[in-house]
């Protein structure tokens, strides 16, 4: 199936998302901060990146901007998965190049459905 990179600093959220994506048949890569996430993305060029916003070393919005500025990621989908729920936060993320936005707490079923929809584009 697809290569999915999860960049999330919360261990419990990471474990849940990894489990559900693997159940769906995807190859999953995991990093716990933005800087490591960028390095992993450059190495693997994933089909989908699931990004938390608030992380150490580089936040998800910065990672999103950087990925969108690199032509190598033109076909990579980005889904923000974050507790930031204000309308202006969603607008900022979409303006930065995110393809979708899911607010924590979230339904893992909804997350997988959105990831599947993004991957089918």
Automatic annotation (TrEMBL):
GO CC, alphabetical: cytosol; protein-DNA complex
Any one Gene Ontology BP term: regulation of DNA-templated transcription
Assigned keywords, A-Z: DNA-binding, Phosphoprotein, Transcription, Transcription regulation, Two-component regulatory system
Gene3D superfamilies assigned: 3.40.50.2300
Protein name (database record): Response regulator receiver domain-containing protein
InterPro entries tied to this protein: CheY-like_superfamily, Sig_transdc_resp-reg_receiver, WalR-like
Domain Response regulatory residues, every copy: 3-119
Native source organism of the sequence: Salinibacterium amurskyense
Pfam families: Response_reg
Keyword Transcription regulation applies: yes
SUPFAM superfamilies to which the protein is assigned, alphabetical: CheY-like
SMART domains per UniProt: REC (SM00448)
Signal peptide: none
Molecular-function annotations in GO: phosphorelay response regulator activity; transcription cis-regulatory region binding
Modified residues (4-aspartylphosphate): 52
């Amino acid at each position: 199936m697809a290569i999915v990179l999860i960049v999330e600093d919360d261990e419990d959220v990471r474990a849940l998302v990894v489990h559900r994506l693997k159940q769906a048949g995807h190859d999953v890569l995991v990093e716990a901060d933005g800087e490591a996430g960028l390095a992993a993305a450059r190495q693997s060029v994933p089909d989908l990146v699931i990004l938390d916003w608030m992380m150490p070393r580089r936040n998800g919005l910065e990672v999103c901007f950087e990925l969108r500025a690199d032509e190598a990621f033109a076909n990579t989908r980005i889904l923000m998965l974050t507790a930031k729920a204000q309308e202006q936060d969603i607008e900022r993320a979409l303006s930065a190049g995110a393809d979708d936005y899911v607010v924590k707490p979230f339904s893992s079923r909804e997350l997988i459905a959105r990831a599947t929809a993004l991957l089918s584009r």
